[in-house]
From TrEMBL:
The HTH lysR-type domain, residue ranges: 10-62
Record protein name field: DNA-binding transcriptional regulator, LysR family
Key word Transcription regulation present: yes
Gene3D superfamilies according to UniProt: Periplasmic binding protein-like II, Winged helix-like DNA-binding domain superfamily/Winged helix DNA-binding domain
Pfam families in the record: HTH_1, LysR_substrate
PROSITE patterns: HTH_LYSR
Keywords from the named record: DNA-binding, Transcription, Transcription regulation
GO molecular function annotation: DNA binding
Source organism (scientific name): Williamsia maris
SUPFAM superfamilies: Periplasmic binding protein-like II, Winged helix' DNA-binding domain
Protein family per UniProt: Belongs to the LysR transcriptional regulatory family.
Keyword DNA-binding attributed: yes
Length: 285
């Protein structure tokens, strides 16, 4: 019997390449690292060749692994397009994944839009970190992905203001090292937070980390330190803007949709998100 390349192991292989390793791939796929490793070993057993190898302390793809990656992308794209096409055409469920930072505004807006355009469909939402939102689109479990992203030099996307926040009563005037609260990796805000402070020559230290927005905001309100957050609905209760810290690079909200979603729906979703992003452009201290 000929060998078979199963979809789930192929998805893990692609995630390892895109995320830069087994640990981050496991986080993106919501699996354990051992499960991802087993998936790659299954592919190696099926093909009869090594797909990854150790080079010092790092992992690298072999030549055979690089070849399989090209085909894996094509296989997964065809597989996921077929599933989304069947789902949408059968008027079942449209899945929307959105970043936590805009959920309060995006969920009502997109719910109304999809009920109007696809009245026979159910709408399923997942609120998560931007990296995982994108992973859902890549693995075919999401039809519409809304995520926070940096704006490029030639990008005309609407700017979402991103500013430093602290507890309303936190006094930073006497600290020798700025106490910083960060999201766990993978996170669109983590690297810009660190790089902005480094570029300004500010001494800082990490005092708290969390995998979600609720944990970060709880740490800020407790007065542990400052954090970088997008300003979409004004200044959160119990917090204040820290205006004397360096301004980070500009961000926006982006929308990506599955290829099987009707273009009219995709365009309407992009327009709705652009309206919300544009309304976040005014920051009040």
């Amino acid at each position: 019997m000929s060998a078979t390349l199963d979809i789930v192991p192929l998805r893990s292989l692609v995630a390892v390449a895109r995320c830069g390793g087994f640990h981050r791939a496991a986080q993106a796929l919501h699996l354990t690292q051992s499960a991802v490793s087993q998936h790659v070993r299954r592919l190696e057993t099926a093909t009869g060749v090594a797909l990854v190898e150790r080079r010092g302390r790092t992992m690298a793809f072999t030549r055979a692994g690089e070849v399989l990656l090209v085909h894996a992308d094509a296989i997964l794209a065809a597989h996921d397009t077929a599933l989304r096409a069947v789902s949408v055409q059968a008027s079942e469920t449209v899945s929307v994944a959105t970043t936590e930072h805009a959920a309060d505004r995006l969920i009502p807006a997109l719910t109304g839009l999809l009920r109007e355009r696809l009245p026979a469909s159910r709408v399923h939402f997942r609120v998560d970190r931007s990296a995982r939102v994108l992973a859902g689109l890549d693995d075919g479990s999401v039809d519409i992905a809304v995520f926070l992203d940096l704006i490029g030099a030639d990008d005309d996307a609407p700017v979402i203001p991103v500013r430093w926040f602290a507890a309303a009563d936190l006094d930073l005037s006497t600290v020798s090292e700025l106490p910083v609260i960060l999201f766990d990796d993978p996170c669109a805000l983590r690297t810009p937070s660190v790089e902005t402070l480094r570029a300004a020559g500010i001494d800082w230290r990490v005092v708290a980390e969390s995998q979600d927005l609720a944990g970060v905001t709880a740490a800020v309100r407790a007065g542990l330190g400052v954090t970088l957050l997008p300003v979409i609905d004004g200044v959160p209760d119990g917090m204040r803007l820290v205006l004397d810290l360096p301004e980070p690079p500009p961000f926006t909200l982006r929308v990506r949709t599955g290829s099987a979603l009707p273009e009219a729906i995709s365009e309407a979703a992009r327009s709705a998100v652009a309206d919300i992003a544009g309304q976040g452009a005014v920051v009040h201290a």
